[in-house]
Amino acid sequence: MALGDLPRDFELVREGRSRFAVRRDLREALLPLLRRWVAGALPAARDLVGGRGGAGAFDIGLDLSVVLRPYRRGGLIGRFNHHLYLGFRPRPLRELRVTEALRAAGVPTIEPLAAAVHWVLPGCYRGALVSLEVPLAVNLWRYLCEVEPAERERACSTAAMATRRLHDAGAVHPDLNLQNYLVRRGTSGREVMIIDFDQVRLASVSARDRQAAFARLCRSIRRLDPQSAVLTLGCVEALRTIELEE
Length: 246
Hints:
There is one protein chain. This protein is α+β, with helices and mostly antiparallel strands. The protein has two domains: 10-132; 138-243, Orthogonal Bundle (Transferase(Phosphotransferase), domain 1). Helix content is 34%, strand content 26%. A hairpin with an 8-residue loop joins strand 3 and strand 4 (56-59). Helix 4 runs antiparallel to helix 5 (149-168) and helix 5 runs parallel beside helix 7. The chain is globular and about 55 Å long. The mean pLDDT is 90.
């Protein structure tokens, strides 16, 4: 899929300096929310369990709840510029395309519904991504903190399998960490999804790429659990299987 194309079932809506890529069947339900985001007048959101980078959940009718995640800058730049991005290839549109392509390829992830870009100036924009809410989902780190040790190892094994599916689909995630996985509990067990494909690289995945993914997760573990109070050696060994090919 060329990055200049929208996924099947999506259309581009142009309104003034705003561009909305929306799923056709949800166009009328999503556009009012996107317009309010542009105007800085979003209704009160429901907080997501564990928080997720300023994202909030909204009911849009049709018995649907969605998550709107505004793009926010982090690090040193984020201290001075919270939400403005430069360039003519907007990141929300790219993330929508990549997420939908990987979902169609069988990678466990969220279901994207819309991407929004508002041009503040030529080459300078604000952005947001809208996805279907995953009820009661928490990030992997929070999940591991809440469950028994044996379940921690099983969850880490499921996360590793999801990551191998990502790699087998030809994608490298440059920011894999324990908070970029969502875990949903269900009657049939747990489901682990990978999220935040903003900077994912679509390419042939090498053994070095797989090793680097495991190394990034290890850095995440050291940052979040420096005393090894939550993650056991068994958890780390379960995650190590990311280095394996299917």
